[in-house]
# Entry
Amino acid sequence: MDFQSLTLFATAAFSLEGLVAAELRRLGFENAKAELGGVRFTGSLLDGFLACLRLRMADRVLIVLGERQCLSFEDLFQFTSSVPWESFLSLDGQYNISGKCARSQLMSVSDCQSICKKAIIERLRRQKKVQIFPETGVPFPIHLSIHENKARLCLDLTGPALNRRGYRTWNGEAPLRETLAACLVELSPWRPGMPLHDPCCGTGTILIEAAFRESHRAPGMSRSFACEAYPFFPVKEAQELRARTISEYDPSRITQISGNDIDPQAIELAKRHVAQASLDTLVSLSVLPLEQLQLSAPEGVFLCNPPYGERIGDKKSCAKLYRHLHDLLDRHPGWSLCAISSDPDFEHAFGKRADKRRRLYNGRIECQFLTYLSDDKKNRYHWNKG
Ligand SMILES: C[S@@+](CC[C@H](N)C(=O)[O-])C[C@H]1O[C@@H](n2cnc3c(N)ncnc32)[C@H](O)[C@@H]1O
# Structure
């Protein structure tokens, strides 16, 4: 296999593919192209590692090993056998195959996984003349996906998903996935240097993701990736790349990121996460109902993930809270406000139509990301649009 010229695929949550494609293009992968479930781009193995280190909004980075139409188990066996596994798998490796099938003739995921495994082992037996595969060595996560009868086999470079930045070890009631929080930061009108405040910050995910961005901290900077254990991994170049990435991190850039929550336990967790991200003196947190919040900065962005009120009894209290968010915005005329909510009545309860709205998924929950721009930003927005 030519590790200098690979087809790579950054997987992304449904509705976030376009954002990840733009992120990859900013990283220099000009041919990054969004598809259902992710973004295809080309590069070397080191490029794949760079994507693991730096992507804020993607879930995983994979090497695409092959794609082929498969209508039967025999097709799948032949397709899997055609991949040159012997050129990159260690013979004592653990070949862990995960699978998903959708809208295809082959729909039994477990059967497809077994067939792939059998085809890999048979090919290795044939090519390497070995009989025993102890599966005690390096894990090689292999992904099989079949969509509309097209099978794709990939080798995972990431290991545990990219949202595992390492700072979140305690979950609150309804924490936001780190990658989605990074998307909200990206979609909001907030830009580094401006004040950002989350008035119902829960365990602090939005604040930490904004602080990472403001300080030029690559989200994968302090964690390892599956590919680093692969025998063909360019260790020295990757160490240099990681060192360069670390040297770009400048926490002194973080100046005005803060949050509050009504729940003291949530703030306790947020403080732990902020400390685990080594940001404890840089992000300020307080226990406070947003109804009492008054900030002194003349302009900035409120960015939040308020409760959605999925249960009937909660609906009323959420509607009240959304109205209080409107009051909060009225008390801060130079500020913009963005909120993600699955509640279709959000704007009605808030009491005003949003200036911008975008459909997003929080896991499987369909949500709207609503933006209320400050008058100043609104003028600029219309001016730019015009
Ligand atoms: C969906 S959670 C936020 C989760 C957060 N994004 C995270 O990643 O952990 C909503 C938060 O709103 C808080 N909340 C509810 N009512 C509030 C109020 N009146 N003032 C401030 N916070 C409130 C809850 O305590 C909860 O932590």
User: Anything to note?
Assistant: The mean pLDDT is 95. The pocket of S-adenosylmethionine is lined by residues 172-176, 199-200, 202-203, 205-206, 261-263, 266, 289-291, 305-307, 321 (CB under 6 Å). The chain has eleven helices and 14 strands. The CA atoms of residues 65 and 154 lie 5 Å apart.
